[in-house]
Amino acid sequence: MAKQLKFSDDARQALLKGVDVVAKAVVTTLGPKGRNIALDKKWGAPNIVHDGVTVAKEIELKDPFENMGAQLVKEAASKTNDVAGDGTTTATLLAQAITSTGMKNVTAGANPMIIKKGIEKAVDAVVADLKKIAKPIKNKEEIEQVATISAGDEAIGKKIAEALDRVGRDGVVTVEEGKGMTIDIEYKEGMEFDRGYVSAYFVTNPERMEAEVENPYILLTDKKIASVQDLLPFLEKFVKVSKTLVIIADEIEGEALATLVVNKLKGTFNVLAIKAPGFGDRRKEMLDDIAVLTGGTVLSEDTGRTFENLEVTDLGRADKVWADKDNSRIIGGKGGTSQIKARISLIKRQISETDSDFDREKLEERLAKLAGGVAQINVGAATEIELNDKKERVKDAVGATKAAVEEGILPGGGIAFIKARKSLDGLKYDNNDEKVGIEIVRTALEMPLRMLAKNAGEDDGYVLRKIEDSTVMSSERSKIPKIRTMVTMPLPESLDQ
C-alpha cells in the first residue's frame, strides 16, 4: 500500500486535530468536579471512568494523520502515569496548550526550532521553581490528605495512608479486586514469592497444609538436585551444626527428594524443600536477593560453586520460613544491613533506567520484598462499573501519594503553576522567536486553573484574576466563594499555602 504524505501546514493541522480530540475528551475529567466518561465495550455494561489516562488509551482515530497527533499526546499522558502515577489529565492539557499555540506561531512564520529552544528553557525554569516551593510530607496525616484529595474520598485516603505508613517509602502497594463490597488491606510480611514446597510430606500443619521452620539455615542454588550423592557430603557436615534446613533450588527430585522426605519423617533433621522463584535470569536475580536478605551465598555454576566445596558458612539464616503448595515466605532474614542497602540501591538504579513497564513492575516487587514489604488493597463494590471506577481512583491516589512522599507537595488547584510563572519573568532570550517559546509556556501554565474553574461551573477569567491578585496569593484565596466551589472538601492547611 502506497504511503500517504502531508507537509507544512496540512501536516501540522492534522496532527493538531488529533491532539485536540484526545484533550477535549480527557480534560473534562479534571478536578474533583470533573465529569465522568462512558467507555463502550463490545460486551457487558460500559465503563464509567474519571481517569484521564484510561480515557486517552481508548481513543483511536480513523484518519491516520490525526491519529498520529492523538498518539503523541497519549504518550505524554502514559509517561506521566508511569512516572508519577497521576496527573495525566494535567499533562494532556499542558501538552495541548503548548502544541496549539506553538503551531499557530509556526504557521505565522516563526522558526519552530528556536520556539522549541524557548519552550525548553521555560520548562527548565518552571520545573526548578516547582521543586523549590515543594514542601516535604512530614507525617501520616499529610499522606492521608494527599490521598484523600487525589481519590476524592476520605475513606480511600485513610486506607492508602495506612498502607503506605505500614510498608514504608520503598514498599509496594498493589490494588486488586476484592471479594466483598468494602476496601480492605492485606499485608504480606517478609519476602514472599509464588513458589511453594516441593512435596506435601514437608507439611508441619496438616489442617492448613502449611510448612513452617523456625530459625533455619537456608541453602540456595539454581541447580537441579536429583542425585543423593550430590547432597550427602554436605549433609554429613551440616547435621553436626544444626538439624533445621531449608533448601531453595531449581528442582529437587528423584532419590535426592526421597532421601530428604525419609529423613524428615524419621526425625533425623527438620527439612523443607522449596522450588526457586522466577524463570531464567529473573530466577538468578531473585535468588541473589534472597542471598543478600539472609546473608547466604547462591550455589551456582556461574560462580563455580559446587556441593563438594559447600560449607555451612555459605548458608543463609532467617527467623522463620513458611510455605504452602503455592507460596513461600522468608521472615527475619539475617543478612547484613550494608549489603541489603547496596542491593536496594542497585535495584532502584535499574528501575530508573528501564523503559519496560513489565520490568519496572518486577523490579519494584523485588525492591519491596527487600526494603519494605507489600500491602495489597482489595477494592470491593456492588457493581462492575462501580468497581472499575473505584479501582482506577485508588490506583491514581496510590501513585500520587507515593510521588508526594518522594518529592513533596505543592499548592493545588493549579495555583503552583500560576506561582511558577514568575520564574519566567527574568528569563533571558536571544531573539523574538525564543521569547515566543517562553510565552507559550507562560500561557499554558494558566490552563489547569482555567479548566478546573470551568469544570466547577465558574468563570475561569474571574478566578484567574483573583488568583493573580497579590493580596490572595496565599491561604486567603480559599475564602473566595468562587474558588472554594472548585473543590469538594476543605483544603488541608498544608496544601492550601
Automatic annotation (TrEMBL):
Pfam families: Cpn60_TCP1 (PF00118). GO terms for molecular function: ATP binding; ATP-dependent protein folding chaperone; isomerase activity. Keywords: ATP-binding, Chaperone, Isomerase, Nucleotide-binding. PROSITE patterns: CHAPERONINS_CPN60. GO terms for biological process: protein refolding. Forms a cylinder of 14 subunits composed of two heptameric rings stacked back-to-back. Interacts with the co-chaperonin GroES. Belongs to the chaperonin (HSP60) family. Together with its co-chaperonin GroES, plays an essential role in assisting protein folding. The GroEL-GroES system forms a nano-cage that allows encapsulation of the non-native substrate proteins and provides a physical environment optimized to promote and accelerate protein folding. PANTHER family: 60 KDA HEAT SHOCK PROTEIN, MITOCHONDRIAL. This is 60 kDa chaperonin. The lineage of its organism: Bacteria, Candidatus Woeseibacteriota.
